[in-house]
Specification:
15 helices, alpha/beta, 12 strands
Length: 382
C-alpha cells in the first residue's frame, strides 16, 4: 500500500508493531469516547468554500512564541517513541527540522534531549511534568536549557493517570503474572522485523532523560514504578512560579480545556497554552479539542498564544482548528504512526501531506494566509 494520509500510516504501523506497542499509541482512556470525539468533532466542522477570489499566492508560514514555523504544525510530545522505530525521536526531529517546524521532546522519550539536539541544528522544545522529585525536574530543565531548547511545554493534565484499558489487557500496567509476561514476549517475537530493527538495532531502549533517576535500568519496564510515582496530585497554579524560577525560556502549559483554567494560566504568567485532552488518554467524557477551543480562545483573547491538539489527521483539520482560534496545531499520533511505519521518511511524508492539504484548503476557502484564518472560514451552526 502506498500511504496517502496519516490514517494510512496507522494501518502500516498496526501491521508492523507488536500489539502492545500499537495499542499504546492508538488507545485512549476508559471507553475511548473522548478520543473518538477528537476526530469526529473535527470531521463535523465544515469549511466555507469561496470562489473567484485571488488566491494565486498562499502563505503557511507563521510564528509561535517568537519562533518561525514554515507551516502551522508542531510535532507534539509522544512517550516511548523509540520503541516504535529505531531512534524514533531523532528521526522525527530531523523530519521536523527539514520541514521547518518544531519537535517537542517528551520527558519519557527513549532518546535523550541531548541525543536529539546533537542530531539537529534546531534544538527541540522540551515537555515536562511537574514531578514529586523537584530536584530531578530542575535537572531536566537545566539539561533542556543547556542544549538550547527555546520552549518548555509543561503538561498539567496528569495529576492522576486515566485508566487505559488496552494497556491493561496487554499487561502493560498493573500486576503482571508470569503467563501475561509470556504472552507479551510472544507478541514481541512474533514481529521479527520490529525485533531486528528496534529491539536489537534501536538500543539502548531506556528512557534517555531518566537514566540518572533510575541507574542501571535497562528497559522501559524497569523505569515504570519510578515514573508512575512521580505524578504529583498536589500541583497547583502556584507551582508555575517554581517553574519560572528554573526556566528562562518560553513556557507553554498543555492540557487546558476549561475557560476558567485558561484565565488562571494567564494570571500565572505563562506565554501560551495548549487546548488538549491528552489525546483522549486521561479523563474520558470530556470535550474534544475542537469543542473546547473556541471558549478557551475567547477567554484569553490575545493575552497568550493558544495552540491546540486532538484528532488532527489532515491539513484540513489544521485549518479548522486555526479558524476556531488556534495559532498552530500539535500532531501526536499522526507522527507516531508514520515513524513506526517508515521512520524519518514517513514523518517527512506526513508533514508534506499536511502542507499540501493546508494549501488546498486555503485556496478553496479564499484565504491567502494562515494567520488570517477566522471563524469566517467555517460554516458554523446558527
Amino acid at each position: 500500500m502506498a500511504p496517502a494520509t496519516p490514517s494510512d500510516y496507522r494501518e502500516l504501523a498496526r501491521r508492523r508493531l507488536p500489539r502492545q506497542l500499537f495499542d499504546y499509541i492508538d488507545g485512549g482512556a476508559y471507553s475511548e469516547a473522548t478520543m473518538a470525539a477528537n476526530v469526529d468533532d473535527l470531521e463535523a466542522v465544515q469549511l466555507r468554500q469561496r470562489v473567484l477570489r485571488d488566491v494565486s499566492e498562499r502563505r503557511q508560514a507563521t510564528e509561535v512564541l517568537g519562533q518561525p514555523l514554515a507551516l502551522p504544525v508542531i510535532l507534539g510530545p509522544v512517550g516511548l517513541g523509540g520503541m516504535f522505530a529505531t531512534r524514533a525521536e531523532v528521526a522525527a526531529a530531523r523530519a521536523a527540522e527539514a520541514a521547518g517546524v518544531p519537535f517537542v521532546e517528551s520527558t519519557v522519550s527513549i532518546c535523550s534531549v541531548e541525543e536529539v539536539a546533537e542530531a539537529t541544528t534546531r534544538p527541540p522544545w522540551f515537555q515536562l511534568y511537574v514531578m514529586r522529585d523537584r530536584a530531578y525536574a530542575e535537572d531536566l530543565m537545566a539539561r533542556a536549557a543547556a542544549v538550547g531548547s527555546p520552549v518548555l511545554v509543561l503538561t498539567v493534565d496528569l495529576a492522576v493517570v486515566g485508566a487505559r484499558h488496552r494497556d491493561t489487557r496487554n499487561a502493560m500496567v498493573g500486576e503482571v503474572s508470569a503467563w501475561a509476561k509470556a504472552r507479551r514476549g510472544l507478541d514481541l517475537v512474533s514481529h521479527p522485523r520490529w525485533v531486528r530493527d528496534v529491539a536489537v538495532g534501536g538500543k539502548p531502549l531506556t528512557f534517555g532523560n531518566l537514566e540518572k533517576a533510575v541507574p542501571g535500568a535497562s528497559t522501559p519496564d524497569a523505569f515504570r514504578d519510578w515514573v508512575d510515582s512521580q505524578f504529583d496530585p498536589s500541583v497547583t497554579w502556584d507551582d508555575i512560579a517554581w517553574v519560572r524560577e528554573h526556566w528562562d525560556g518560553k513556557l507553554l502549559v498543555k492540557g487546558v480545556l476549561d475557560p476558567e483554567d485558561a484565565r488562571r494560566a494567564v494570571d500565572a504568567g505563562v506565554d501560551g497554552l495548549v487546548v488538549s485532552n491528552h489525546g483522549g488518554r486521561q479523563l474520558d467524557a470530556v470535550p474534544s479539542g475542537a469543542a473546547a477551543l473556541p471558549g478557551v480562545a475567547e477567554a484569553v483573547g490575545d493575552q497568550v498564544e493558544v495552540l491546540a491538539d486532538g484528532g488532527v489527521r489532515s491539513g484540513l483539520d489544521v485549518v479548522k482548528l486555526m479558524a476556531l482560534g488556534a495559532r498552530a496545531c500539535l500532531l501526536g499520533r499522526a507522527w507516531a504512526w508514520a515513524v513506526a511505519a517508515r521512520g524519518e521518511a514517513g514523518v517527512a511524508h506526513v508533514l508534506e501531506v499536511i502542507r499540501a492539504d493546508i494549501d488546498v484548503a486555503l485556496g478553496l476557502t479564499g484565504t491567502t494566509d494562515v494567520r488570517d484564518l477566522t471563524p469566517d472560514a467555517l460554516l458554523l451552526p446558527d
